[in-house]
Amino acid sequence: MAMDRDSTDRTILADLARDLDGSFETLVTTHQDRLYSIALRMLGDPHDAEEAAQDALVRAYRALDGYPAERILELRLRPWLATIVLNLCRSRIGRRAARATVSRPALSLDATELGMLEPHTEPSTEPAAVVARRDARDTWAGLLLTLPPAYRSAVVLRHVDGLSYPEVATALDRPEGTVKAQVHRGLAMLRTAFESSQRREREEMSA
Length: 207
Known about the structure:
The protein is mainly α. It is built from nine helices and no strands. The chain has helices at residues 2-18, 20-43, 46-66, 69-74, 77-96, 127-144, 149-160, 165-172, 176-206. The longest helix has 31 residues, at 176-206. The N and C termini lie far apart (50 Å).
């Protein structure tokens, strides 16, 4: 999977270096969904995420238009694009910080994407089980958005976008050891917050 992904990106970069206008659409169709996914998990709002992903592609085009072919060929495409969309997300998060309240995010995030659950078993289609899974996804989604941006970005890139640790380090411009520590710490914070939320729910039900 990773080799196929890397081969596809190298082909895209070669095409971009040769004919930017003629091949940029291939970059868009290949990477727009993952850029939206990163933005959605960072921001929690579908509209904001769509705007961030679109802005990231516009910025990518403008940057590529100013690069010589040699520089385009040397790019690590996935981390490079991730850096662009994350910078846009950070700007939006910074603007939000001044707000007194933040609405509940309309975001669904499977806990399995973060490696939080037991090994996969075929999900039950019973209505109660379906509702429970949806509630769990909503809970994880909200908890992810409570992480400090530094931890959130590391967790999202590693466990949602699926970048390797070296790629995450490149995208975030941090040492690989720092990234590993932030991912580990971020996951630990999520587990602690989830367990705390579960205890509160049990206490409320038994009160």
